[in-house]
Design goal:
This protein is about 40% helix and about 10% strand.
Length: about 325
Amino acid sequence: MTFGNTILNADGLRLTPEEKTLFAEVNPFGFILFSRNIDTADQVRALCAEFREAVGRDCPILIDQEGGRVQRLRAPLAREWLPPLTHADRAGPDAARAMYLRYRLIAHELRGLGIDCNCAPMVDIAREATHPFLANRCYGRDAETVTLLGRAVADGLLEGGVLPVVKHMPGHGRATMDSHHDLPHVDADPEDLDDTDFAPFRALTDLPMGMTAHLVYDRIDDKPATISPRMIGLIRDQIGFDGLIMTDDLSMKALRGRLCDLSRAAIAAGCDVVLHCNGTLAERAEVAHAAGEMDAAAQTRAERALDRRQAPGELDIEAAEADLSRLMGGEVYER
């Protein structure tokens, strides 16, 4: 079965008849959940089942569950995690173990609800000028630290039976604007970028999926990375990532133009999947029809990514929480 080149979403807590009809027609690769889709544990599990029933297969279901400001699941369905950078800073020399345990517990939370993909690790490097929308979501302030903790996050998710999505390729940390509202530009030397921002992604090329950044690297190309053949080529060839590449959300204001044109441009640039998170049913249909079906290379990467799914290993929740609390000096969760 050939997948559609999209990851789509739902308006509410259950699928409407119109959504079921559209999803059956366009066969999206997967779906993504937001706060508007989440109420109770039984409701989330039922919605995930409806997504999979609509396309007739065990499709991936994604979520952004970083912790801190960006976590769609909240108490009582999930722990209220500290922002990642705060978590890493408090753990100090034990940050890698602490981040592993954090995301191993997150994976346990997700799997219990039928969710099997998390949009993490986020291996953008924090700097003084990094926009606040991103800064405390980072894991560190240098490539070595971010790489180490990104690997720990990915390991925790994978061992918990959840596929990681590394983001935002090839590096969003230098952005001084919020790409949800504006298009950031980065005027950095390409050699410096290769040594710093690109380095964590190069170290994590074995991960199954990655997400692009909506920003322009002025000295490389004048197009946003998501719709730039040059930048997607850089991710493939210079960084060496051969996993499934999905766009960041096409409904973000960093990208201008009609959704159908943006969808075609992203696929033409070399992205495998178009992610569309916020819009009407008609807009979702527009994106799906414009993006079309996967070609052979994208289908191979998609199937290879799904083959990385595995049953979670055994986890002693009480012992993991006690270990994490010890590493963090008791300061593990938001109050």
